[in-house]
Design a protein that fits this description.
- With 514 residues, this protein is mainly beta.
- The strands form 7 sheets. It has a 9-stranded antiparallel β-sheet with strand order 17-18-19-20-21-25-24-23-22, with no helix packed on it.
Length: 514
């Protein structure tokens, strides 16, 4: 294995001084690596150092859109201005509207109140300036504002007042035009991903089994079905409450479908042992489309876990072994088949020995482009979560290149100091940590939802370049979830998980992102 690069005491001190000197600015420019050509892969091993080119340029991310102007996405956002209502701090010229509020706004047809714990989300153009949002609710059974069981939407009758998906109608001003249940009786619906055919694949981040008991606030029950699956929801709100078993049963986080509709890339947010990044390949001759996944046999296609290959041909055991020293460097990737994807006897990630696959403490957001797929690794700093000699970090963003079959680190959040309890301590509210959900904007840059220590932000990130704050949770320290832009770039929808708010943010996005 290549030598492990770690920050020495002098480097840490310098990093702290650098961050401290920027206290007056509402941005954090992460370590930047200038562009150059992608390396040539020979014999399955990367040759030389490539610092960019393996992830799409702003123009490549959306090849059917006009090429962005020179310097697109590099204009810093203005300082954030405190919200007099105490909810969302935004730059001057931007505004927001509350679309839904858990336990306050109402579902259509007497279905009840908006469920809590808003998480992953996708937006679809409904025409005439209106949009359809499909929203996950990351809820365990017995919640006060769980997703109600509506006839035709229920997967597991035993998962009462648990997770699921709702469909929201809104417009550019953020008016709530109605909300209703599409999927219920699922558990911990965290993220997922939109499909090229206009549906939403929602992921359960759990491994609960049929027969397991659950208890919450004096309520109790028993799961009647296994959980930890992916389900499909249509933009009109219809859903087939049958699990897509061919994608495996584990703590799913997010996913992305490739442009050829033959592969799906999936993340796992788990530890003990740390989670994996997966690729599912459709059976020969099968092209994915509406309802195809649900109809496939449980063992259809190939589900495989990622191996990152080092210079000496060995497998990188955990992404935490890499640091900012490897920014922009492409590493070859191989995929090793999962032995038993439904995990009836052994959890999927435990079916591999340490060193057989590449693990990560928190594989989170996933978002695809025509060229490849971004995947976020949220943090790894607790000694109990790190393999021996690995370097702690407060967030990584990776890009996997479909054609080259390489992966490279494109954004890195250095580890900050820790308290006696081992939790990160921010130098100030202008430093960032814990990136979670990710989306690609219509201009090809990234938007990250922060789930870290202290204040939470929505971030604008340039792959290989700077990161800026574009919003701050002024209400509490709850994470942001499910950022998603309308195709026309007019509105950024994002969720604040607690107390459960859907927000529509408008402003001169193109000035700063385009």
């Amino acid at each position: 294995m290549s030598p492990i690069h770690r920050m020495d005491d002098a480097s840490v001190s310098a990093c702290r001084s650098w961050l401290s000197s920027r206290r007056t600015r509402l941005e954090q420019e992460l370590i930047y690596v200038p562009p150059s050509r992608r390396t040539i892969i020979a014999g399955g091993v990367g040759v030389g150092l490539a610092v960019a080119g393996g992830f799409p340029s702003l123009a490549q991310a959306h090849p059917n859109r006009p090429r962005p102007p020179a310097g697109a996405g590099h204009v810093p956002f203005p300082p954030l201005v405190d919200d007099p209502d105490g909810i969302l701090a935004l730059p001057e010229g931007f505004s927001y509207a509350v679309v839904t509020r858990a336990g306050v706004t109402r579902l259509n047809g007497g279905q009840g109140l908006t469920p809590a714990d808003h998480d992953g989300m996708a937006v679809y153009d409904a025409g005439r300036g209106r949009y359809t949002l499909i929203q996950n609710h990351e809820i365990d059974p017995g919640a006060e504002f769980g997703v109600p069981h509506i006839k035709g939407t229920v997967y597991d009758p035993g998962a009462v007042d648990a997770g699921g998906c709702t469909v929201i109608r809104t417009d550019r001003s953020g008016r709530n035009l109605g909300e209703f249940v599409a999927l219920s009786g699922t558990v911990g619906n965290c993220a997922g991903g939109p499909t090229p055919w206009g549906t939403w694949l929602t992921c359960e981040e759990t491994e609960d089994r049929a027969g397991d008991d659950w208890e919450e606030d004096g309520r109790s029950g028993v799961f009647q079905k296994d959980h930890g699956y992916v389900f499909e929801v249509w933009a009109d709100g219809s859903a087939d409450p049958r699990p897509i078993k061919c994608l495996g049963r584990y703590a799913h986080e997010a996913l992305a479908v490739d442009k050829d509709r033959t592969k799906i890339y999936l993340s796992e947010d788990a530890d003990e042992p740390n989670g994996l990044f997966y690729r599912w390949t459709a059976p020969r001759g099968v092209k994915l489309g509406p309802g195809v996944l649900t109809r496939l046999a449980p063992d259809a296609g190939v589900l495989a876990a990622m191996q990152i290959i080092m210079d000496d041909g060995s497998v990188l055991p955990d992404v935490a072994y890499l640091t900012s020293a490897q920014l922009g460097r492409p590493f070859p990737v191989r995929w090793i088949e999962v032995p038993e994807r439904d995990a009836q006897t052994t959890t999927v990630r435990e079916q591999f020995t340490d060193g057989q696959v590449t693990r990560g403490r928190k594989f989170e957001g996933v978002w695809g482009t025509d060229e490849g797929v971004y995947v976020v690794n949220s943090y790894a700093w607790d000694d109990g979560e790190l393999p021996a000699d690995a370097a702690p970090h407060d967030g990584m963003v990776w890009f996997y290149d479909y054609r080259a079959q390489t992966i490279q680190l494109v954004t890195y959040f250095p580890h900050q100091t820790t308290s006696e309890e081992g939790t990160p301590v921010k130098y100030n509210d202008l430093t960032f940590d814990g990136p979670d959900n990710v989306t690609v904007t219509p201009w090809g840059s990234l938007v990250l939802a922060e789930d870290g220590a202290g204040a939470s932000h929505v971030l604008s990130a340039i792959p290989g370049g700077p990161t800026y704050a574009i919003a701050r949770n002024q209400l509490n320290d709850s994470e942001f979830c499910g950022p998603t832009f309308t195709a026309d770039g007019k509105v950024l929808f994002v969720n604040m998980q607690d107390p459960g708010l859907t927000l529509a943010i408008t402003g001169p996005w193109e000035k700063y992102l385009g």
